[in-house]
Design goal:
353 residues, alpha+beta, SH3 type barrels, 2 domains, 11 helices, elongated
């Protein structure tokens, strides 16, 4: 690759880091100042700021990629760098290259982080704010498991425990038995319950005639129901991409609606792709000489379009989570339309410099 390519790449990455950390720091600082009175201790305050910063970073990085492009192009435009690149024979498509490669690299880095515990930074910040681990607990849960229905008074995600559990096994529209136990511990992909009381129902036709009690020392149940996955099914809160795929596969195997999980995955994987596409469109419409465009109008147009698209995508995601629109008719449709538009504009301006 040429020195011009690395020159553009370097300036874009530098501006991206400035814009990203500037935006994230300001938003985090505002949140921190609003809640500092509720946090006791300097260490907890620092950790709250750190986790909130991480959470805001994953939220704002797509828009920061576009803003950094606008900042870089504006600087190049008014220093006549674009005109110089054109004079040396570099086409507009060459200029697009460093921006796209850098933005795709950033995208994969952040998506990679979302496969890890980094994705739960918001939960950790919330637990510090509440001064407890209750944010990781789920109370009064009820969910389907194969032919059974499970209710539990509490699930402790941190310690991987289910408490006060009842499992109802249903067959041929009849409750065949109920398993009751005080606690189950998650181990190696399934839950281990101890000291189980099993009530086996007797029927005369469709009429129950009582039950027999059987005591079981230990049994394994709920295979594949990871603690974080159960929490996602019940609350639909923050999740890593890995846990999201586990939850999606589990819901699919149980024939349960997975709209919330799919919407959350699309927000992390599909939604940020609007940024590289918008970057291409902005570069295509940026003139090579400053005389052709007012700087104020340039910022107003590019920043305005970016904020509109970003807001639209998040609004559609909320609508799909609430079931107002089909999940794949929200963010994926807008990103696909943006891709078609970008592809059309690239072909149309293929002879432009």
């Amino acid at each position: 690759m040429s020195r011009a390519f690395f020159y553009i790449f370097k300036h874009y990455i530098k501006n991206f880091l400035i814009v990203l950390f500037g935006m994230v720091f300001v938003v985090t600082l505002i949140d921190f100042l609003q809640h500092i009175g509720s946090i006791s201790g300097a260490n907890r305050a620092f950790l709250y700021f750190y986790y909130t910063f991480n959470n805001m970073l994953t939220l704002l990085y797509p828009i920061a990629m576009v803003f950094a492009t606008i900042m870089t192009l504006s600087s190049f435009l008014y220093k006549n760098y674009l005109l110089v690149l054109s004079a040396f024979g570099y086409s507009r498509y060459f200029i697009i290259g460093p921006f796209i490669i850098a933005s795709i690299l950033i995208y994969f880095i952040v998506v990679g982080l979302n496969f890890t515990k980094f994705a739960y930074s918001g939960d950790k910040a919330e637990s510090i704010l509440n001064n407890s681990n209750s944010v990781y607990n789920v109370d009064d849960i009820f969910f389907k498991y194969n032919n059974s229905f499970v209710s539990a008074k509490e699930m402790d995600v941190v310690h991987k425990e289910l408490k006060d559990v009842n499992l109802y096994y249903v067959d041929d529209k009849k409750v065949k038995y109920i398993m009751e136990f005080k606690k189950a511990k998650f181990d190696n992909g399934e839950w281990v319950a101890k000291d189980i009381v099993k009530k086996i129902f007797r029927y005369d036709g469709d009429i129950p005639k009582g039950y027999d009690i059987q005591k079981i020392d230990k049994t394994n149940i709920l295979k594949g129901y990871y603690p974080k996955v159960v929490r996602l099914l019940y609350e639909g809160k923050r999740m890593s991409i890995l846990d999201g795929f586990k939850a999606q596969n589990l819901l699919k195997s149980q024939n349960i609606d997975n709209t919330k999980i799919v919407s959350a995955l699309l927000e992390k994987i599909i939604m940020p792709l609007f940024a590289p596409l918008l970057i291409v469109i902005i570069i295509l419409f940026t003139p090579i000489h400053k005389r052709y465009m007012s700087r104020a109008k340039y910022f107003m147009f590019t920043l305005g379009i970016t904020l509109i698209v970003w807001s639209l995508l998040y609004s559609l995601n909320m609508m799909s989570v609430n079931g107002m629109i089909p999940v794949y008719m929200g963010q994926p449709l807008i990103v696909f339309i943006l891709f078609i538009l970008t592809f059309y504009l690239v072909l149309r301006k293929r002879n432009s410099i």
